Amino acid sequence: MRSPDAIAASRAPFRPLLAKELRQIAGGRALWTMLLLLCPLIGYSFVQAVSLYGEASRAAMQSPSSASSLSPLDGVLVPTFGAFYVAVTLLFPFVAIRVLGHEKETGALRLLIQLPYRTPTLIVAKLAAILAAWLIAALPVFSALAIWRLLGGHLDAPETLDLLLGHLLYGLLVGAIALFAASITESAATAAIVTLAFTIGSWVLDFTAAGRPGFLDWLSRLSLTQTLRPFEQGLLSASLVGGMLVAVAAFAALAAVWLPTGVSPRAKLARSLVCVLAAGVVLGATAQLRASLDVSADRRNSFPAADERALRELRAPLIVTVHLAPEDPRYVDLRRNVLAKLERVLPNVTIRLAGERQSVIGRSAEDSYGIVEYDYDGRLDRSRSTSHREVLPLLYGLAGVPPPQPGRGEDYPGHPLVAEADASLAWFLIGLPLLIIAAWWWSRRPPALNLMSPRYGEAS
């Protein structure tokens, strides 16, 4: 039989709690200050991206063959969202911390815990408020997308939504980390330092560990920055999306463990260890997911459609042995142009990096360095090429199947556009900031119902 407290918690309405969290995060200055700072930052990045894209488009008009390299995803969207990424990394933690840090500093957390709500329910409400804060903070980015369309620019829906999803998951992850940091610290300032240690530490990992062999390469994959790169390339990966969702849930669970005030630190540490171990097991399971979807308009993450149909018929195991060091630029090209695409399309493929323990200098003098061996069902061939145009015929020869005929109309046409977005700076520097100030003034109105007041118990 459930206790009276459990019954009361199950019957407690969620809407007043969510309204209280939304009003609290909107009533602070952090969200509106971040918005005001985002306006010129995103506006300037967008104008510069449109200007550079216009210059490249002028060159494409003189040489139509180069138009296929003009993608709004690379030329406009990624630079614009890059400014938003920097703001979410450095400024959004201060917004997210307010949903809990302000209550701990004022003592309101003790009253909140006494309300008939379960701790996970409180955390869910705070995560919902963080999500709402991210959506509000993304208004300048949505404005840039709307202006790009008004200028006549092209937006491919799948790749644009994929990029939005990546930044949304990244924002939720930063918010969950901030929520956990606020739960283990006593002040908002300390929580901000802990959160920035996670986010800025990711940059340090990128600069020092990326491209290094062995443990450093594995460590670099834990960087938060790495999570956005597949989305920026138009790739929707099930393992990446699942991993980010698991990380968000893990940090939220840790925040729920450390939120109650009447539990001993030893018990909290034991529960935290259980959460970390469970998250590690689930992350290991999601890492095995190979399903992915190439949503880029130019199919940059895939072979031509005719080749993909032919490769899916190759059921025998393929073992690829690469005699290159991980830091060799040729391996980077081979990975991007051939290996990653093979892993996505072939049902049974194994990649072995024979030169992972050697440096470029140490291996360059050997005859085998630079050779890539392809072993398909016991038949072996070698190549030094990093282009799929030479590797795929080699695989077809090993499999004993004729190369497919190239399809027509599969080439990406590109979307050149010569446009000027300088006039839009007036919106980012004057129009949108005035609307933000008006919204901030409106949010400071006194609430109609205070969740902490004695009258709340009568209303509920």
Structure notes:
The protein is mainly alpha-helical and 460 residues long. The protein folds into 2 domains: 4-294 and 422-453, no CATH class; 305-399, 3-Layer(aba) Sandwich (Glutaredoxin). Helices cover 65% and strands 6% of the residues. The chain has 20 helices and 6 strands. The chain has helices spanning 4-11, 14-27, 29-62, 72-90, 92-106, 108-114, 119-137, 139-150, 157-184, 188-208, 215-220, 229-232, 238-258, 265-287, 305-311, 329-345, 360-364, 388-399, 425-443, 454-459, and strands spanning 235-237, 292-294, 318-322, 349-353, 372-376, 379-383. The strands form 2 sheets. The protein has a 4-stranded mixed beta sheet with strand order 4-3-5-6, with helices on one face. A hairpin with a 2-residue loop joins strand 5 (372-376) and strand 6 (379-383). Helix 3 (29-62) runs antiparallel to helix 4, helix 7 packs across helix 9 (157-184) and helix 9 crosses helix 10. It is globular, with a radius of gyration of 26 Å. The protein starts with a helix and ends with a helix.
